[in-house]
Amino acid sequence: MKLQLGFTLGVSILAAAQLTAPAAVVAADLGITSDTIVRLYERDDSGGRQRSLLPVYEFLRLDYTAPKAPGLSLHAYGWGRANLRDDFGNADDTVDGELIYAYLDYLDPKNRDYQVRAGRQYIFEGLMREAIDGLYVKTDMMPTVTASAYAGLPVNLEDEKGRGGDWIYGARVAQGIPGRYDVALAYKQTLNHGSTDEQLVGADATLLLPADMTLLGHTTYNLVTGGWGEHSYELRLPFKAFELRPFYQRYRYEDFLNRRSGGSAPFRYMSQLGEKVDIAGTEAFWYPAENVECGARYKHYEYDSRYGSANMYTVLAAIRRKIFSEVGGEFGRVDGDMAQNRYYLGRAYAYWDVAPVFVTADVVYVNYDEGDVWSMYGEDSAFFASFGVGRKFLDKSLNVKLSLDYSQDPYFDKDYRGTLAASYAFGK
Amino acid sequence: MKKSVILIFLAAGLLVAFLAACVSTPAYRLPAKHPQIYELGERREFCTKCHGYKKTPVDFERYNHTPLFTESHRLVAYQDQRICALCHEQSFCNDCHVTHTELRPSIKNQTENYRRMQHRGEYLSRHRIDGRLDPTSCYRCHGNPQSSQTCRPCHG
């Protein structure tokens, strides 16, 4: 049903766009990208019966620029899935899909002073990281000030009590000199069936300090619960081929996690605990040569009432050859006060380009200190390996990729998966 | 903190922004798109390789795609999505940030292993620990009714 509604909306917008389009659409105006993904996996159930699933996914994207209306463009993207074989008993769910976005965009062609978007769209700024069916406007008309506002129906509440009474709106105002500093204030309110689901205010800021140091971060305040939900700040300290990024985050679950209906139970449960967590640490990078990068991260978690504390250590490195080829490795340790919060992780990967062919390989190994306690197979480790190969055809317009994966872990004895993907890009 | 204090704070911020705007000169305008060069937007790139380390009109060093960029890009993305949109189509972000999907980003892009995507490898067992340590990082993507469909079959 959602798929049908989504495509109906998409087709309607496409039809509207065609009214403004010339008779002949050329590749420079129109871009279509298709990703077709066929997956196969087989699994032995507890009764010894082998079950398999063969889903086919299609991700379709369209971008159209109206040649006779400078600044006007149409963008749409959605996915659909059909199960060609399904031994898992999902008879009522053999097809699914979603219209991810479909919007008309108008960007002032003269000075790029303002932008208007109408339709289903994603907004990532300030307090927003979600989809709306509605209107978004952004303007830079006042020097050094950027203001944006949006209003519409929240897509993520579509299935919750219907769409009647659903509403989302908000705004963000930022003042600053690009590259030097900016300070922004944002507000967001979401209504679900007439009652307030979320009401947040937030502030974000960036400040360039002496010696090319940068401070950036943001803070949110939950107006429904009356408390600070998040403080996230980091400092960036570059020094020749090195960079340090110390950070600090503080969350109060009651004010950050939402008790809204339809959300998953763990978040609703944890939002009632009154827990606070402080996360502090640093990222560090070292670039000894143009094609070599080394990184490290340390994170310390300090909980107010549960788990005590935990540390996370990560080191990783990558070496590149020309532009496209890369090999890398990673080693990590999570070390919590509680024994069940401890594991080691190791990973190695390679992406090697020998145009028009490329080859990929990936190995991940995780060892859990107490994995066998909750394992179905008495295993305390997980092993994953993936091998892939791809080739580009038709002047790089068509990219065909095949990957074969194997995993063995505490929950599944042996898991084999195969994925065949074909990406085709037309125009633009 | 009372709502009235917050609203006064907001109003004061807007007033300062307005006054600053009145005494300022017009700002730099980003182009709508980065010029097409090889497969920019699909690769993990360092903007400073071409743009250098000059801080104005845009501090491109801030957007360098370090080996940990996948985990730490949100602060810069929230502040100006238009910088991301220079090279990335909206659909690129939707590999992870989407209301409802079935394919994990690392599975949808299985051969793009250089992107260091979330949940790569066998994640079912690891998520027990990561979720306990930092549920806020789960919540950012799985916190709404649509996207929590991946959690509900087991967690309710």
Classification by helices and strands of chain A: mainly beta
- Which residue ranges of chain A are poorly predicted, with pLDDT under 50 across at least 5 consecutive positions? 1-23
Termini separation of chain A comes to 32 Å
Residue stretches of chain B low in confidence (pLDDT < 50, at least 5 long) are: none
Give the CA-based shape of chain B: flat
Name the biggest interface: A-B, 146 and 92 residues
InterPro entries (chain B): Multihaem_cyt_sf
Protein name (chain B): Cytochrome C
Keywords (chain A): Signal
Protein name (chain A): Outer membrane channel
Task: Describe this protein's structure.
The complex is a heterodimer of chains A (428) and B (156). Chain A has 428 residues and is mainly beta. Helices cover 8% and strands 64% of the residues of chain A. Chain A is built from four helices and 22 strands. Chain A has a 22-stranded antiparallel beta barrel. The model of chain A is unreliable at 1-23 (pLDDT under 50). Chain B has ten helices and no strands. Chain B has helices at residues 3-22, 48-51, 69-72, 74-79, 81-87, 90-93, 105-108, 126-133, 135-142, 152-155. Chain B has 156 residues and is mostly helical. Classes of the chains: A mainly beta (428), B mainly alpha (156). The interface between A and B is large, with 146 and 92 residues.
